[in-house]
Amino acid sequence: MISSTRAEVKEDFRMLDRIRKVANRIFSVKVVNSKPIAVTLDPPITADPDQKTLLRQIHNELKTHRRELETIRLAATSEVMQDVSKFHRNQVKTLLETLELLATTDVSMSRFGDGEFRLMLLNDFNLRFQKNSPELQEDLRNVFTSNDANLAVGFPQLFRDAHWSGVYQELWPRLVQLTASDRAYACAHVTRPQAFSTLGQRAVDLWRQVWDGKKVAIVTGEGSRFDLIPELFDNLASHEFIYSKPVGAYDDLDRVQALVADSDCELVLIALGPAGGILAHRLAGAGKRALDIGHLSNSYENVFKGAPRPEATAVTTDGEKNS
């Protein structure tokens, strides 16, 4: 059990008060994407030796606190992360294995990340562009527990950082109940920057092999920034766009599915948030190959062109951000 003396608590409050006072004196702040960002120092801290000394003390104190918090985090999540690691080692394909599966077979793919897991398992969780509902939760569970041999269910790559250890600490006891011990899961991060940073040109070649010479339909939200960049997509035989709603796409799936059914495409590529995985599952069940590829183009450009990561780009051309 971790506890603090009254004197230690008072000292922490004194340190926080000193940080606040120094910040108020020297930082110029502007608001970017609704968050305060320190952009300048005015006056320069080098002009005041006392400020320099205080900031060094604050910096050292924060480093110490960070090390202590990291130790606590590792200890608190150790048991859960060992469980997740074992599951991942035994049942989740690697990035390369997943891409080779997609490139050499006709399986469809639905991907799950922390957003889909939280929508599926937490009644009060919503995304900015997708409101939760009992119907959405049920559909996500149906996808995640699907035993359709023509559908690869994507599970996140294993990360042990604060974000993902927190996700699993919160969700794993319920999530593991939905997994099947005899099921092999794809790696959901094949559409993320990790695929290109890890596999380089090999990832590009395998993705291009998936749709080489095929007639493709792209399903995405109206106003989406999804881009058929030539580095990935200039080998399509043809393409058409089918647009859904940029927000709340789950409620539009019946209409979109009907439009896809009327298309003569050979492959459907979907960039539609959590609704995309559900649509891929539906289309696979109807005999149409569909891949939930999310931010694939953004991921390529992040790794090979230094563009912002997918979550830092706008969902639509009017500037709505990913979350």
TrEMBL record:
- Show the InterPro entries listed in the entry: GT-D (IPR014869)
- Pfam families in UniProt: GT-D (PF08759)
Instruction: Indicate the segments forming the Glycosyltransferase GT-D fold domain, all copies.
Output: 109-306
Please identify the protein, giving its name as recorded.
DUF1792 domain-containing protein
Q: What organism does the UniProt record list as the source? A: Glutamicibacter halophytocola
